[in-house]
Amino acid sequence: MSKKAELIEMYKSEMKSKMGIKTIDKKVFENVVTACGPSIYQKDACKVAAGDKDEMKRVKKNFIGKKLGVTDDARADKAIAGAVSTMGKSNRNKYRAIFYYLLTKELKKSSVFK
User: Fold this and answer.
1) What sign does the CA torsion over 58, 28, 15, 8 have?
2) Alpha-carbon distance 21 to 52, whole Å?
3) How many helices (H) and strands (E) does the chain have?
4) Kindly report the CA angle at 51 between 49 and 56, in degrees rounded to 5?
């Protein structure tokens, strides 16, 4: 099994066991993981620091704005808050791939990754 496939399985397990997410759109999720690029393999970059305002600005600008095409700040902020809530505020392992998948679902932009 490739490293990427191992990470995908680990992410899915995390979503099901720790976040209670019952159904995962496999194709969309795998394409979100691919869109994360090499960051999923790097110890620091594979996680999102939701408490870091600068990082959240980058997520909003680069992923939500550029990748998903959502430019409404209020809508983006609501999606970020929803993803943080789903993952758990105290969860220190907010994996970027899961966070981006949750944003994609919150914003109803799965078509971007079909």
Assistant:
1) negative
2) 25
3) 5, 0
4) 70
> Cβ-count burial of 90 within 10 angstroms (0-12 exposed, 13-18 middle, 19+ buried)?
exposed
Q: What is the pLDDT of residue 61?
A: 97
49/32 Cα distance (integer angstroms): 18
Among 43, 52, 33, 41, CA closest to 102: 33
Structure tokens at 76: 């983006």
Cβ pair 32, 63 in contact under 8 A: no
Closest CA to 40 of 1, 2, 95: 95
Residues 53-89: pLDDT tens digits? 999 999 999 999 999 999 999 999 999 999 999 999 8
Residues ≥6 apart with Cβ < 8 Å to 12: 24, 29
CA 103 remoteness from chain centre? 6
Rounded to whole angstroms, the Cα distance separating 53 from 57 reads 6
